[in-house]
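Box 3.1 A note on notation
Throughout this textbook, protein chains are presented in two layers. The first layer is the amino acid sequence; the second is a token string describing backbone geometry. Keep the layers aligned when reading.
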Amino acid sequence: MHILCAISRRKIASHIIRAMSRRVHSESPPPRSIKRAKMDHLTLESFKNGVVLAPMVRSGALPTRLFALKHGASLVWAPETVDKAILHSERSVDPVTGVISYNGKSRAIWTTHPIEKPYLIYQIGSADPELAVQAAKTVMQDVSGIDLNCGCPKPFSTHSGMGAALLSNPDLLCSILTALREAMPPEITVTAKIRLLPSQADTLKLVERIINTGVSALTVHCRTRNMRDRDRAMIERLKEIVEFVKGMGKDIAVIENGDCLGVEDAKRVREVTGAHSVMIARAAESNPSCFSKTPLTDVHETLVPAYLRLSKYLDNNWSLTKFCLSQFKSPHTKSNGKAEDKRVRETIVKSRSFDDVVGIAGGWTGEEDFKEIVRAIETREAKVHEELRLSTAEVQQAISSTAADSISTDDVSQSVSILSRVVEARSGCKYITPPGTQNPHPPASGAPLISDAPRLLPALISGQDPLTPTPTGGTPLVTPVL
């Protein structure tokens, strides 16, 4: 018995040795076909040479972000969420669609989907380093970067010391960024979005402090705190900021925000400013396909039905969906386009749920729309717009040039369409802004940087809120009982 066991052990050992010998001397397997590299996490380069979606309250909903990615947005910013709000939410995952919801007591505070994670920047509204870190840790598993809102001028943000109020408290601003950078793992980027200060010298001092906190990128909204969307963005001031950051020896992207109409117009903006990338807000709110070189026209036919189907499939809130749809507009290419657009809008306005717009949606096949978006995101050749890449010589020329072209108010009023804007930009009018845009307040206006005092009648009297960055959808104000 012992002899048999010994023989068996010797046989087993012999087989093992032969197998190891064959493995050592065997030829390497044939090389696999090279696959497209996936973006595991964002890097400093991820913020360069791109056109990105701005963080927009309400308008930057999940369906809008997905359509922006489908049509070529390099990165997408989620709408600002206040730190305390997300801390009191509960995370849930839809087992069918994969939608991740952070739910409050009565509704979802914020939703996302894994398909957008490689390109998603989550924006925090905060005035407390500890709360900001807690909020970032709450969502970090579902995002690729954290952005601090330092530019929102709306009272709900500034009265708590958040948003644009941080511009006048650089110590707090930088302490939040420093805390975020120290708390987040290296694969999670930390960035900031600011506005210009009235003084360029003060702006540069603030930028220097922000860059030294270790941020991966800095977005500059080229308006001051007291300026609104109707005021022309002062993009000519950004060139000096870009040059200043470069002079610091930091390989940090500076992203321009303000008055860009689309991917083609982004060329003009980058040429004027030397910015590494361009962020789009209002144009994307009107048409998420503006990131494409051939943006959609007749959106009531080419975008609205698909947006409805996708929103229902992802269980997007109806009121939020309705609001986003109300912002869409585009040129009409058909003789009955304007009338049909009006009909679609009126139908949506009167609707109380998705069931009321099935005729516009053309059936609830949102899963197919979602699959189409997934295919577009996964198969696009690169996350950056190659057509925006400027040669080193062109960048240097844009940065070093001291002659800033400008146009008069009369010239601005002549810009009556997107087409004329592009034509005029290519012909040398580099600062032309959208129709209806007015000149910014003059430097000598004495407008205080920190004041939250309304310049018009109170909203309760006028029925309008001029400080709200996004439309209120025409909801009537409640008349107080006197």
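DSSP finds 20 helices and twelve strands in the chain. The longest helix spans residues 2-25.
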